[in-house]
Design goal:
mainly alpha, 434 Repressor (Amino-terminal Domain), two-stranded antiparallel sheet, 4 helices, 37% helix, 8% strand
């Protein structure tokens, strides 16, 4: 199932990303991101836009869970914030993309 607005809001919150930071790493405008976050279901944007947003989050160690029957959609971190600081948000200021964390255990 495509990424939902509630998952985008939650992923951005868990990574403590501003709209501007997410726009920079995803290549999606902050205006479009706001529109995506304003709905609870699937945002009314092109699927490639949702893919870019999802890829930006997955590169930071966010894994998405589709809704199943009565259980809604969700997400989790593939790294533990207690033992690992995770990605450095300051990489944005240095004009460097975040490291690809998708292959890490």
């Amino acid at each position: 199932m495509p990424l939902q607005g509630c998952q985008i809001r939650a992923a951005r919150a868990i990574l403590r990303l501003s709209l501007k930071e997410l726009a920079k790493v995803s290549g999606v405008s902050d205006k479009t991101l706001r529109r995506c976050e304003s709905v609870d279901g699937v945002p009314p944007v092109h699927r490639n836009t949702l893919h870019r947003i999802q890829q930006a989050f997955e590169n930071q160690g966010v894994a998405f869970i589709d809704s199943v029957e009565a259980i809604g959609p969700g997400l989790y971190l593939t790294w533990n914030p207690i033992f690992d600081k995770g990605p450095s948000i300051c990489g944005i200021a240095d004009e460097k993309p975040f490291p690809d964390r998708s292959g890490e255990p």
